[in-house]
Write a structure and sequence with these properties.
Length: about 450
């Protein structure tokens, strides 16, 4: 794994450095208070900004003091942090305007070799406009209006950091999966209509009568999680957390309060699952309720597998399989190619194939593609099929980045992207699935445009 680039935050006391640090690391780590001088030591954290990962360093407020004093030693720590950084974020308070201390810090930063991005923090509201204009006098590039408190300006910060981070040997860095994602138990939920055989399937997988089963529909009420270890055909032992859920009927048919609570509990279990197996009764085929459940699972961003149970007693299996496959392609057009397996919870047919498919689809669901690989694919995709020009004005697509995994989420940057048709977004998402190895997992695509300074 390549070393993460380093970004240092610098500025006089109480301009919002720790608030920005907390914003970028995604949690309240650094202490924040209205009093100046709260931060003393350098604090480091891992930041992820719209898919761009880097090490962020919060520093003490720069004050002109004797090196032997505490403020002087704090200043030395800040200077060392800036010299070790790949880029420095110089914060000023836009509402307070430029003060002599800001000018002193600017002179020092101009004497260093570290690139500097000037950020006018606390820029929400009209009171900050004059401070943003004053910042031009500090001798850096265009000051960036920003609000660490509210998160305004994150897209602009992403664009300003890209030349210093993405294009200097870091664009092909791929994040290693977190340990709990790679080796943690597979969270596998079994859902479906009542009496599809969910509890019988769990019992067969476990090899014991762990769940109560019977011909009556709706025996299971609570979502039950069971930890288990699967021995793969190659002998590898892998942990699994199986979650059996209550049957899900059409909402119109659910009148009993307890059944409503059971249905809510089942969907709550889906929220915490990684992979969801939608179990169908092969003797009944695919019904509209099955498609509704599948759509809910995909809307929640979970990886989906569809299993045809009771295959040992199904009539005309080849025709049934093709009919279900065709109906899925039509009914789940947003995610084509969802894995469709045939199993028998009664006889044990297809158990290993089902668990292996669940591990495979979790791997795709957790996949991250480097920015370099992603944008090389993106340039070819746009060249083959350029975006339309509504009203004769061209939509310019600039680049694509993966912001998250589990499920994979991508952000598309460009101008006039708010007019990009849904059909073109689907073209990009289908290409990502097909060409970059994501398969049939749900994908999120968000469009973003840089702030227009002339919007006012």
């Amino acid at each position: 794994m390549a070393k993460l680039p380093i970004v240092a935050i610098v500025g006089r006391p109480n301009v919002g450095k720790s608030t920005l640090f907390n914003r970028l690391v995604g949690k309240r780590v650094a202490l924040v208070d209205d009093r100046p001088g709260v931060t003393r030591d350098r604090r480091e954290g891992t930041a992820v900004l719209l898919g761009m990962e880097f090490k962020i360093v919060d520093t003490a407020g720069v004050e002109d003091e004797d090196p032997d004093t505490l403020p002087g030693r704090m200043r030395m720590q800040t200077q060392n942090a800036v010299r070790e950084a790949d880029v420095a974020l110089f914060l000023i308070d836009a509402r307070a305007g430029i003060v002599p201390q800001d000018e002193e810090i600017a002179r020092w930063l101009r004497s260093e070799d570290t690139p500097v991005i000037l950020m006018a923090n606390k820029a929400e509201g009209k009171a900050a406009e004059s401070g943003v204009l004053e910042a031009y006098s500090l001798g850096f590039d265009t000051p960036m209006p920003f609000s660490a408190e509210h998160g305004d300006g994150l897209v602009d910060l992403f664009e300003a950091l890209r030349p210093h981070i993405e294009f200097e040997g870091f664009d092909d860095v791929v994040d290693e999966p977190e340990e709990d994602e790679e080796s943690g138990p597979l969270k596998l939920a079994i859902v479906g209509r009542p009496n599809a055989g969910k509890s019988t399937l769990v019992n067969r997988i476990l090899g014991e009568e762990r769940m109560i089963t019977g011909p009556e529909a709706g025996i299971t009420r609570d979502s039950i999680a069971i930890d288990w270890e699967w021995t793969a055909p190659d002998g590898q032992v892998r942990p699994v957390r199986l979650i059996d859920t209550a049957g899900l009927r059409k909402k119109a048919k659910v009148q009993d309060k307890l059944e409503k609570l059971s249905a809510q509990d089942a969907m709550h279990a889906v929220d915490f699952a990684e992979v969801v197996v939608l179990l169908l009764d092969a003797t009944l085929g695919l019904e509209a309720q099955d498609l509704r459940i599948a759509d809910q699972v995909l809307q929640e961003g979970r990886a989906l597998i569809i299993a045809l149970n009771k295959w040992d007693v199904a009539e005309n299996p080849p025709s049934l399989f093709q009919g279900v496959r065709f109906a899925l392609e039509e009914g789940l057009a947003q995610v084509r190619g969802v894995p469709l397996l045939t199993i028998s919870a009664e006889t044990g047919r297809g158990m290993d194939q089902l668990i292996q498919a669940a591990f495979d689809v979790r791997e795709a669901w957790s996949k991250r593609v480097s920015t370099g690989v992603l944008n090389r694919w993106f340039e070819k995709a746009v060249e083959i099929n350029p975006p339309p020009a509504p009203g004769g004005r061209r939509i310019k697509l600039r680049y694509l980045t993966q912001a998250k995994t589990r499920p994979p989420g991508f952000i598309l940057f460009g101008t006039r992207v708010d007019q990009l048709p849904e059909s073109y977004k689907r073209y990009l998402m289908n290409g990502i699935r097909k060409d970059l190895g994501f398969g049939a997992v749900p994908i999120r695509l968000t469009v973003r445009a840089p702030r227009n300074p002339f919007d006012r």
